[in-house]
Amino acid sequence: GRGVLEGAFLVLEELARLGEAGLTQLSSATGLPKSTTHRLLDQLVALGAVHRGEGGRYRVGARAFRLGQMWEPAPVLRTAAARPARQLAITVGESVSVAVLNASDALIVAGVLGRADEVWPLRPGAVLPVASAAEAAIKASRPRAAAPDGYPRTEWTRRLTGVRDHGVAFDYESALPPLACVAAPVHDPAGTTVAAIATVVLDSRRLASLAEAVRATADRISANLARIPGASRALRLLDESEPG
């Protein structure tokens, strides 16, 4: 079974995603028994990591929020991506996110909020679902990139080949319905893929028309990285986080 610490983080992650939730909803979202969820919540409330409001509703507490504010992921990448990401969001009028690999997960480190965030909060720290367009865009350059667990290997190979051929990855509402996404790889000065920038929309019919803007934005971020002294060294840990 899961350890106490793992269970506590599951609860905190779901609260961060949901914003506010009751005991039954949290138990269902985490897959933990209701008694276990209740015990973890009591402990987290006592520590100030979770706030319990009226009617037995819970949300992330002040202590966890303060700790989260100390997290500054990939500062070099965030600097290089800040202006291009804002420009892309203005151009397409949609949510934009920048993601890196953290172990095998695609983790958002920066972005611009938009309409899609009303469906799924695409904020820094959020982990994207497996086989997302961002994950495909990053892993396409890795010759031994295995298919995510439970994802058809032939379909994954087809998607990665598409990224290599066209420079973008698409997700037509499969990873995070009803959201659709187009992503493009970002490269460090040595040419290694270290991240992906994506725009997320509520209408998958728009994806093809957005692909060129996303690809051009990825190129601008890559060019910005090339102008930052020591960028390759600073980004090396991002590349080493996924051995495949």
UniProtKB/TrEMBL annotation:
<dbReference type="Pfam" id="PF09339">
    <property type="entry name" value="HTH_IclR"/>
</dbReference>
<keyword id="KW-0238">DNA-binding</keyword>
<dbReference type="InterPro" id="IPR036390">
    <property type="entry name" value="WH_DNA-bd_sf"/>
</dbReference>
<dbReference type="GO" id="GO:0045892">
    <property type="term" value="P:negative regulation of DNA-templated transcription"/>
</dbReference>
<keyword id="KW-0805">Transcription regulation</keyword>
<dbReference type="InterPro" id="IPR014757">
    <property type="entry name" value="Tscrpt_reg_IclR_C"/>
</dbReference>
<feature type="domain" description="HTH iclR-type">
    <location>
        <begin position="2"/>
        <end position="62"/>
    </location>
</feature>
<dbReference type="GO" id="GO:0003700">
    <property type="term" value="F:DNA-binding transcription factor activity"/>
</dbReference>
<dbReference type="InterPro" id="IPR050707">
    <property type="entry name" value="HTH_MetabolicPath_Reg"/>
</dbReference>
<keyword id="KW-0804">Transcription</keyword>
<dbReference type="InterPro" id="IPR036388">
    <property type="entry name" value="WH-like_DNA-bd_sf"/>
</dbReference>
<dbReference type="Pfam" id="PF01614">
    <property type="entry name" value="IclR_C"/>
</dbReference>
<dbReference type="GO" id="GO:0003677">
    <property type="term" value="F:DNA binding"/>
</dbReference>
<protein>
    <submittedName>
        <fullName>IclR family transcriptional regulator</fullName>
    </submittedName>
</protein>
<dbReference type="InterPro" id="IPR005471">
    <property type="entry name" value="Tscrpt_reg_IclR_N"/>
</dbReference>
<dbReference type="InterPro" id="IPR029016">
    <property type="entry name" value="GAF-like_dom_sf"/>
</dbReference>
<feature type="domain" description="IclR-ED">
    <location>
        <begin position="63"/>
        <end position="227"/>
    </location>
</feature>
